Amino acid sequence: MTVRKKYLLAFTPENANLPVIAVLVQKFGIIPNIMQAKVNERGGRLVLDIEGDTESLEKAKAYILEQGVEMRELDRHVFRDEWRCIHCGACVSICPTDAFHVDMDSYEVRFNPEKCIACEACIQACSPKAMKLELW
Amino acid sequence: MKRSYEEINDKLSKGDAVVMTAEEVIGLVDSVGVEQAAAEVDVVTTGTFGAMCSSGAFLNFGHSDPPIKMGKLWLNDVPAYTGIAAVDCYIGATEMMEGDGEDYGGAHVIEDLIAGKAVKLRAESMGSDCYPRKEIETFVSLDTLNEAYMFNPRNAYQNYAVGVNSSPRTLFTYMGKLLPRYKNATYSSAGQLSPLLNDPECRTIGLGTRIFLGGNEGYVSWQGTQYNTSHPTKNGVPVGNSRTLAVIGDLKGMSTDYVRALSVHKYGISIAVGIGIPIPVLDEDIMRACAIRDEEIYAPVIDYSVQSRRRKTLAEVSYADLRSGSIELFDRKVKTSSLSSYPKAKAIADELKAWLDEGRFEISRPVAPLPAESKVKPLNISTREELE
Lengths: 136, 388
Hints:
heterodimer, A: alpha+beta, Alpha-Beta Plaits, 4-stranded antiparallel sheet, 3 helices, about 35% strand, B: alpha+beta, 8 helices
């Protein structure tokens, strides 16, 4: 079965050189889409949108964890502080994946975290600062 | 049909008045007509909740022992204006925290005070015979202050522009993030719920009008700055940013549900202020004006990449179109974002309606009208000789 999931990979200085993307593609036949990457000699993090079959994905995960790289599934990495949200709608037109929509009865803004790719566009656009990034 | 302020207040005090929101009367006028609706409804409530930069609060701290005449003053490291008496200040909403404070400013100080939080006060002075103290550092809260009242020179804009960006780069403006090449459009008005769009010539809104301000009672204190009656109208309301209000109200008793600090990315600090104004239905013309709907209210589309005050209107679009999620511009579909909150505007109109229904709020006849005509002058570079 093919699945598509988002993962956050955290590197330490010891494993920051590991060619994770190449390994995922070549060794496990997985298609990673890099959504965020900030890795240097001191470590860092990668956010990947991964597509592959369940079995390969499990094997790849085991391999990556063996190298000492932390790997955690991201399902709600951008979240909304419901109290700070004033339901203006500033986020609606700047989201590249249409993760926000306005409910036409209440005119409240609905957020669908499943569509979110953690690009952080809404975090910039949200002036009441209701949209927040949660990375471990 | 004629109705007086006194009649309405008499009915309100007895609990006999019929109060409806500006959204509700649209449906009523549709089904029974203006005459019947005017006969049935005594007061129409309105609301708006959006960024209103020209806002702030006067605070009085009381005197320390020994006393100080505060010359320079910071509240949570945000400078406040002290060029008035010894322990009075004005904290402006858009003032930014000194140092590394892009996300904190005067608006946050005001929100924190309303929330009941302690705020750090630091002040310096030259020292004098009557005010010997030269510096002070302490904490204050809304409870420890003598007076704390919001005084906003320009709020509740009657309509506003729609922002777009024709340039190849993203712009960060007070109209929010504007994507390159007309990829989005932003607007900021409560439209059919907005106070000054429901009484477009300010027949019932004037100096002294009692209003809902930030969750508390407040008053219209003057015409707002840049009060402008010169825009052309469509369906009886101006197309573009026109009349404004200066408002005043006690910070003690306000709610952070209706006063919210904003940090506009790469622009600065602003504050969302909730304002609701009751409109007494004195005659049928007032009911007709209150029944205006988003389809009939138009806003000018302005290109914010033109960095000059001579920006042309690219198009005029209705709030119904804007609220639908996209507008047509140059034969293309452009996604829209509201910057003011319609749900909050509705909540304000509902809350004000509840206050009126419960007899907790009287409507007031203006002490004096707002200007019938007023234009906005630009700032030109002039010499003293040219002006004297």
